[in-house]
Amino acid sequence: MDLLPLPSASTPAGGFLGLPHGAVVSGPAELVDAVRLALAVLDPRPGEGGTITVEPDASLGAESYVLDVTDGGVRIAAGDRAGAFYAGQTLRQLLPAAAFRAVAATGASWSVPLGRVRDAPRFSWRGVHLDVARHFMPKREVFRMVDIMAAHKLNRLHLHLVDDQGWRVESLRHPRLHEVGAHRPRTITSYYREEPTFDEVPHGGYYTLEDLAEIGAYARARAVTVVPEIDVPGHASAILAAYPEFDARATGGRRPEPFTVLDRWGISPAILSPLPETVDFLTGVIEEITGALGETPYVHIGGDECVLDDWAASPEIVAFQAELGLGSVSDLHAWFLRRLADALAERGSRAVVWDEAFVSGRLRPDTIVMPWRGQGVARRAAAAGHDVVQTPVFPLYFDYAEASSEEEPVAIGDAITVSDVAAFVPAPESWTDGEREHVLGAQFQLWSERLPDGRAVDYRAWPRGCALAEVAWSGSAGNGFDARLETHLGRLDALGVEYRPLTGPRPWQLGGAGHRRHRPGAVKVDEVMKHLEEMTHEADSTRPSM
Ligand code: ACM
C-alpha cells in the first residue's frame, strides 16, 4: 500500500473500489468536513447514504481511525475529528499520486485498493519548526507548510516569531514592534570567519493579527496546532530596536545606544531586562497573539542562548535578584521564564522552552522542554519530570545540508541525511519507562538564516521531513521505508513540493558560485553536537539544586 507514515496495521484484501468524482460522504457534520477537507481533490459532497461513511468510535484514541475499503464502499471509524482527517489522508495516499494535485484532470476516475487500515500515532507531538524571524515567510508559505504537514500527519507548527533579525507580528498595544522591529536594511551574505559582506537589500514582513487568526483557523481545520514562539529574554535586538526602555542596559535611567534590528547571524548580547515591567509588556503582547490565534494550548517562550552580562552589570537588576533571594543571574533567568510560564498558565497555555531554561532549574513542572543540545539534557529533563519534545541539532536541524558537497546550496553546516533522520529514536530503549513516558514526540527545525524563501524551505524540509513524520507517527522508520519513500516522492511531485531528490540536487538546485555557494566541511554537525553536549554538562555541574 506504500503508506507513509506507516500505519499501525494494514491488511490488503485484493481488488479495487471505484470512487466517483463528487462521491457522497455521510456522517456527523464535523467528521464529514474533516474527510472532505483531506480529499478535496475528489470534490466530495456531504449527503445521506454515501459511498464514504464516517462515524465516531469512542473505543479509538485521539487522532486514531479504522479505514475499511470494501466492494460496498469506504467506512471510516474515527476516535475524533483529527482521526477522521487522517483517515481521509490515508485514503488519499491509497489513490494514485494525482490525488495530490490541486484539482483532478477532467474526467478523472479514482480507484482504491480494498483492505483495512487500523492506525494510531505513537507520539502526540509531531512537529515542524519554522523560523519566520531570520527570513520572513509570507502567510501563503505557512498555509502551504500546513498542507504538506497534513499530508504527513504532522500536527504541531512551531512558529519562531521573533529573533534578533526581526519581529513578525502586528501589535496594537505596542505598534513599534511591527513598525520598527519587522524589517532590516540589509542581510549578511558572508560565512563564518569570512570578511563580512552584505546584500544591501531590505528585508522584512509581519503577520497582522487577522493573518494570525486565519493561520490558526486554517491549521486547526487540518489538525495542526500552531505553537507561537516569543523567544526571550535573549535574541532581543528587534524588540529593543522598537522599545529600548526594556533593554537591560537601560535600567536605572541609563540611555545606552539602542540596538538595531540585526543584519547578521550569531548570538547577540541584546537582552531584555527581567524587571516586572518587562514581564507585563511581554504578557500583554503574548495575550494579543494568543487572542488572535484562537485556542493556543502551547506558547514557546525561548530561553536559549542568553548572554547575561548586562544583567550582572546592572545594579538595579542585581538588587532585584537579591530582593527575590536568588543567588545568581542564571537563577534570575529561570525565575523570569517561570514568571512568564505562570502568567501563561493563568490564561490556559502551557509554556515550552529550549533546554537552557531547564538547565538553569526552577521551571514550572508542567513546562515542556525542547532539548536541542542532545540526548543527555533530554534525558535529564525527562527524569526531572518534564514532558520533552525531541529537537536535537543532530539529526533534526534541517538547516544543515544533506551532504558535505560543493553541489549543495549554502547551509549552516553539514551533514544530516534522510537515513540519519529515519534512524532517530525519540524515546530510546536505554531510558527508564518513566523517562520514556515523558517524551511527547519529535520535531524538525527549519532555522532560516540560510533559507531565504519557500523554495529553499522545500529543499531542506523534504524528504527528511517524511522520515521524521514516520518516526513520530509510527515510533520508528518501519518496514520498507526506503521503497515507500520512493512512491511517496511522486505524491510530493504532484503536490508541487521542490524537495531534494534522493540522488542530490536538480541542476537548478545546485549551490553554484554566487550567493548560494556552500562551504562543505566548514561546520561539521558532529563537532557542533559534541560542543553543545559539553556545554550542557558544564552548566549541569554548576546548576543549583531544584
Ligand atoms: C537554538 O538552536 N538556539 C534553540
From TrEMBL:
Q: Tell me which residues make up the Beta-hexosaminidase bacterial type N-terminal domain.
A: 4-120
Reactions catalysed according to its record: Hydrolysis of terminal non-reducing N-acetyl-D-hexosamine residues in N-acetyl-beta-D-hexosaminides
A Pfam family hit: Glyco_hydro_20b
Keyword DNA repair in annotation:
no
**EC assignment:** 3.2.1.52
Does Nuclease appear among the keywords? no
InterPro entries in UniProt: Beta_hexosaminidase_sua/sub (IPR025705), GH (IPR017853), Glyco_hydro_20_cat (IPR015883), Hex-like_dom2 (IPR029018), HEX_bac_N (IPR015882)
Q: Which Gene3D superfamilies match?
A: Chitobiase/beta-hexosaminidase domain 2-like, Glycosidases
* Domain (Glycoside hydrolase family 20 catalytic) ranges: 123-475
Q: Which UniProt keywords apply?
A: Glycosidase, Hydrolase
Q: Which domain of life is it from?
A: Bacteria
Q: Family, per the entry?
A: Belongs to the glycosyl hydrolase 20 family.
This one is known as beta-N-acetylhexosaminidase
